UniProtKB/TrEMBL annotation:
<dbReference type="InterPro" id="IPR004839">
    <property type="entry name" value="Aminotransferase_I/II_large"/>
</dbReference>
<comment type="subunit">
    <text>Homodimer.</text>
</comment>
<feature type="domain" description="Aminotransferase class I/classII large">
    <location>
        <begin position="32"/>
        <end position="271"/>
    </location>
</feature>
<dbReference type="Pfam" id="PF00155">
    <property type="entry name" value="Aminotran_1_2"/>
</dbReference>
<dbReference type="InterPro" id="IPR015422">
    <property type="entry name" value="PyrdxlP-dep_Trfase_small"/>
</dbReference>
<dbReference type="InterPro" id="IPR015421">
    <property type="entry name" value="PyrdxlP-dep_Trfase_major"/>
</dbReference>
<dbReference type="InterPro" id="IPR004838">
    <property type="entry name" value="NHTrfase_class1_PyrdxlP-BS"/>
</dbReference>
<keyword id="KW-0663">Pyridoxal phosphate</keyword>
<dbReference type="InterPro" id="IPR000796">
    <property type="entry name" value="Asp_trans"/>
</dbReference>
<comment type="similarity">
    <text>Belongs to the class-I pyridoxal-phosphate-dependent aminotransferase family.</text>
</comment>
<keyword id="KW-0032">Aminotransferase</keyword>
<keyword id="KW-0808">Transferase</keyword>
<dbReference type="InterPro" id="IPR015424">
    <property type="entry name" value="PyrdxlP-dep_Trfase"/>
</dbReference>
<protein>
    <recommendedName>
        <fullName>Aspartate aminotransferase</fullName>
        <ecNumber>2.6.1.1</ecNumber>
    </recommendedName>
</protein>
Amino acid sequence: MAARSIFSAVPQAPPVAVFKLTADFRADSDPRKVNLGVGAYRTDDSQPWVLPVVKKVEQKIANDHSLNHEYLPILGLPEFRSSSSRIALGEDSPAFKDDRVGGVQSLGGTGALRIGAEFLRRWYNGTNNTATPIYISSPSWENHNAVFIDAGFKDIRAYRYWDAAKRGLDLKGLLEDLENAPEHSIFVLHACAHNPTGTDPTQEEWKQIADVMKRRFLFAFFDSAYQGFASGNLDKDAWAVRYFVSQGFELFCAQSFSKNFGLYNERVGNLTDCGKRHLITSARVPPPRWRRIVRTTWSISAVTRSSRSWFATLTLEPTPGVLFRMNGND
Ligand SMILES: Cc1ncc(COP(=O)(O)O)c(C=O)c1O
């Protein structure tokens, strides 16, 4: 008799809806089909499209024989990390002068969220405080809840965001949920181009949100997966994050370059952390703490072709907005 597999009790899991849709799309032979699932750049013929500037840099890299495949520092390519943080916080952010910004190169935006969640679970509001409430917008990107659950958090809650009747932001509900959240709760905030509603607070509304969060000692964990998509301008789309920094918040910002650079399968991301001012030593999260998490998660950050090309792209096109103007989105 064949021995039972040791894994025979592993339960089935439902497919991830958006990837199931892509698989169904591929399998469908109807010539009129249109894929409204994963939001990725496409040509008029529905073929994947690589940004011209990305192609240009890739060619440069291919011809650069000084590059090699040595291991990187654990936290990633230093130029990439600091460029990414500058994209989030702004070139002139006083936070850089005060040395209170840190960055960790990550496997896409998901990797940034995950190591950020790991960090918070280990060292935020006590140690291993799995009871800290995590608030996720209702609705939100489907993976947010799971990332925080898998990092060990036990109390995942929804905050009101979308008013279906008004077809817009439920500001009143959102502010009430902020008011009623236990102090030190963690709020995952979409930096711009909220997924899936596409509705963002106005600057005035962000100010109200920040006011309550400051008063109630709530932690802002920004998820910035679409910087450039809301307005066509990287700086405008970072307004909320930069405003929170200007208000003295300590915060995390998970950055994904999957969408804005069209680098989906290269897994290019960064986690920016910004600490408080006026500390004698550096106010950012101590790098050894991050190294500990990265070392047991993916060991050493990846230098993908694209994280190099992403960094080089900025050197090539020094004004970030240029990239988006080239695409006609500005
Ligand atoms: C809101 C949001 N956050 C994070 C991500 C993850 O990005 P990445 O593919 O870089 O891991 C996505 C991807 O769709 C997203 O929509």
